[in-house]
Amino acid sequence: MIDLVQLQNDLFGLLMSAPALNTVNILRERTMITKSEIELDAIWQNVRNGRSGNGVLIEEIKAVVNSPNVTGPAQDFACGFVCFQNGDAAFTPESGSGFYAQNLAQMVLDILHRQNIAGVGTLQGVGTAPAKDFDFINATRVTLKIIGSANAQTPRCTPVIITNNAGSVTLTNATTDSSIFYTLDGSTPMDPTLTEIISGEIINPNATLYTAPFAVVSGQRLRAVAQAFGFNACEITNYLVP
């Protein structure tokens, strides 16, 4: 069973350790806290690293049941983060944190999206929207889902881009730290059914690891694929040299 209080503490630790939020006060909602204006004042009034005016409230984690017909424990969880902006304090020279609520919400989303929580799953951003239940202050809510390990999907590399400049071919891929393998005989560079890691068993022995532009001739069938640690391989790019 997932400890939801510990999960909230883990999220608190991620935000507290983010350099971009080092002047933003961050608090955790507990069941006994009523959402009243008086109690919530402390979120943006408390000073952190000499500044105040912005705050983030980590709401209670909620379990999500995707289908009532599936037995067993809930695998997914939803979490909300309310980002506050006090219009006066946040932008007071020398003492304000200086964030609009909408911008602060986007920062929280960027920090947490795709973060992995050990033993629980991976955070996936859902979006941001005005927090209308806090209409006495500028507030924006960020919503993320935590996809349980059993349901998490491995991301896929972006497709390989082939550029032919007068018979000299360049291969590029936008996925960070990716490796590109290619063939010129029309064969598949790697086994498409085994795409999670690079290994000698899944790479076609006729495939070449791309390191620099290479020459091609008319009629050759170039096929290329990209792979990176933590990603599935992309779809194979096919190119018939004109």
Can you walk through the features of this model?
- The chain is of the alpha+beta class.
- It has two domains: 4-147, Phage tail protein-like (STM4215-like), CATH 3.30.2000; 161-241, no CATH class.
- 14% of the residues lie in helices and 31% in strands.
- It has helices spanning 4-16, 37-45, 101-112; strands spanning 25-28, 54-58, 62-64, 76-85, 116-117, 121-130, 138-148, 161-165, 168-172, 179-183, 208-209, 214-215, 221-227, 237-240.
- The strands form three sheets. Strands 1, 2, 3, 4, 5, 6 and 7 form a seven-stranded mixed β-sheet that branches. It has a four-stranded antiparallel β-sheet with strand order 11-10-13-14, with no helix packed on it. Strands 8-9-12 form a three-stranded antiparallel β-sheet, with no helix packed on it.
- The radius of gyration is 24 Å and the shape is elongated.
List the defining traits of the structure above.
single chain; 2 domains; alpha+beta; seven-stranded mixed sheet; 242 residues; STM4215-like; four-stranded antiparallel sheet
